[in-house]
Model the fold of this input.
Amino acid sequence: MELLVALDESEPGWEALEYALREHPEDDIVVVHVVDLSQSGYGEFAHLGTKAIRDRQRAHAAELFDAARERAAERGRGLTTELLVGQPAATIVDYAAERGVDRVIVGSHGRSGISRVLLGSVAERIARRARVPVTIVR
Done:
């Protein structure tokens, strides 16, 4: 079985990886990180130009992936990684379908009430749109 773990720098993202490593010791894991250029986090670097922004994103993803591989190695496990660009929920769902993964594991930031309605939930959108089971880890 192959699992897709969506990883960002948040605690829920790391909890999703830990869950996959702990609960699925025999399964293959692909860790993806999605860069969303429409988010303001990258807008602050717009003056640097497209190449500099992409280089910075790749460096950030490389750090996340190195840390993920270290966590996996502590359990005697390996994993593969993939840097994706796009809107996170749609990109993850599309990648999961294209790759034919068996399950998606994603962290939830636990928003509720009005903030969930206004901001939406990436984890919820993935769960609604994915063709495979989705485990949401808090």
Summary: The chain is about 50% helix and 20% strand. The chain has a mean pLDDT of 87.
